[in-house]
């Protein structure tokens, strides 16, 4: 079972699951959903929730219709609704003693490598602190040019950044059917999809509710991102109470299987960076440590070539100037010049501020 074997799980919930057609908040549903999250946490799983609903809740508070809202007004309404949304989550989840945090993301945050790395580290630290991040698109500042436009694609990017094993898109249908089940009675649920061909895209009919901006097409787009991220994805019925428990028990959903492993996807993501911005020359001891799967520490660095920033793609060379690996730097070139050759416990003293101990984290490195 894909869900059972997953360590890090991203769950996307749409506006229509939080607020119904009569603009009534579905408090009972959210309370039951909190039970699902608590069970996942008890099972030692990392959970990220990607939630829509800020604009819908803002409209409810102001008694406005979401239809025909201009971008600048929807941004203001989103900022009003954001507080409503988080208050709703906090009030409901605190009953189950679930700690929540909020992360607001725009498209740029996931497209720019440095920002994506920072987001990844934030997720990792929140998991260590036993907090569940709730991710929202930053509707209050996102422009039409940089908006995701729907949270299905945002959720797939979050799954990619966080190196998640599984993404669940909770929808108003049980998954992808051979035909539109609302029209055709003989429509059958497709249980597993390995290849996303034109036939699958044709099946994905678009359906838009008053509060939701997505349809099946955006879910297929999300599946494409997941397939190249080594992450399994599920489209499942979110309208029923305890939707995650239902997936565990009945497995009535559509699973999209990845084309490559998570490790291969991570390597591809790092290697696909445009030309490296600099080089680090390291000693034999550091090379041996990297061969054992360790991170690169300052003590093993002999020299720094080039000017680069935190998050930039750099080469790692041995003492003979032969390229051994590539990775994403946790420091600028100026910072590394100051700390090279020194033990990690001296970094804060040398730089004058608290920072990481790894110059390149093992997860951000690929051997050539």
Describe this structure in words.
It is a single chain. It is built from 14 helices and 15 strands. The chain is of the alpha/beta class and about 375 residues long. Mean pLDDT is about 85; it is low at about 205-215. α2 crosses α4, α3 (about 55-60) packs across α4 and α7 runs parallel beside α9. It has 2 domains: about 10-265, Acetylglutamate kinase-like (Carbamate kinase), CATH 3.40.1160.10; about 275-365, Archaeosine Trna-guanine Transglycosylase, Chain: A, domain 4 (Roll), CATH 2.30.130.
The number of distinct β-strands equals 15
- Average pLDDT confidence is 86
Give the strand line-up of the largest sheet: 3-4-2-1-5-7-8-6
Radius of gyration: 22 Å
- Give me the oligomer status: single chain
| Secondary structural class | alpha/beta
Point out poorly predicted stretches.
206-214
Classified in CATH, the superfamily of the largest domain is Acetylglutamate kinase-like
Task: Just name the CATH architecture of the largest domain.
Answer: 3-Layer(aba) Sandwich
Shape: globular
Count structural domains. 2
SSE run = EHHEHHEHHEHEEHHEHEHEHEEEEHHEE
Number of helical stretches of at least 4 residues: 14
> Main β-sheet: number of strands, strand sense, barrel status?
8 strands, mixed
């Amino acid at each position: 079972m894909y869900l059972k074997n997953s360590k890090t799980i991203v769950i996307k919930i749409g506006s229509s699951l939080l607020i119904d057609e009569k603009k009534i908040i579905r408090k009972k549903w959210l309370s039951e959903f909190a039970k699902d999250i608590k069970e996942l946490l008890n099972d030692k799983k990392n959970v990220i929730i990607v939630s829509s609903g800020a604009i819908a809740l803002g409209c409810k508070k102001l008694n406005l219709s979401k239809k025909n809202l201009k971008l600048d007004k929807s941004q203001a309404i989103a900022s009003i609704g954001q507080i409503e949304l988080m208050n709703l989550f906090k009030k409901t989840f605190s009953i189950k003693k679930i700690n929540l945090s909020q992360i607001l993301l725009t498209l740029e945050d996931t497209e720019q490598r440095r920002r994506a790395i920072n987001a990844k580290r934030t997720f990792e630290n929140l998991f260590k602190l036993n907090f569940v991040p709730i991710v929202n698109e930053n509707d209050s500042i996102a422009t039409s040019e940089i908006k995701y436009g729907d949270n299905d694609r945002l959720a797939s990017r979050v799954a990619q950044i966080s190196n998640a094993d599984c993404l669940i898109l909770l929808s108003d249908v049980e998954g992808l059917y051979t035909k539109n089940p609302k029209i055709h009675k003989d429509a059958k649920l497709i249980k597993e999809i390995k290849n996303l061909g034109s036939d699958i895209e044709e099946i994905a009919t678009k359906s838009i509710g008053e509060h939701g901006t997505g349809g099946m097409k955006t879910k297929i787009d999300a599946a494409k991102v997941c397939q190249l991220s080594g992450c399994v994805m599920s489209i499942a019925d979110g309208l029923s109470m305890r939707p995650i428990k239902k997936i565990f028990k009945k497995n009535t959903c559509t699973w999209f299987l990845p084309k490559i492993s998570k490790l291969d996807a991570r390597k591809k993501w790092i290697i696909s960076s445009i030309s490296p911005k600099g080089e680090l020359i390291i000693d034999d001891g550091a090379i041996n440590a990297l061969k054992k799967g360790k991170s690169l520490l300052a003590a093993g660095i002999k020299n720094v070539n080039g000017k680069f920033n935190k998050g930039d793609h750099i080469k790692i060379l041995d003492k003979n100037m032969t390229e051994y690996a590539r990775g994403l730097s946790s420091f600028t070139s100026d910072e590394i010049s100051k700390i090279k050759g020194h033990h990690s416990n001296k970094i804060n003293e040398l730089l004058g501020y608290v920072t990481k101990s790894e110059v390149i984290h093992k997860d951000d490195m690929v051997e050539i």
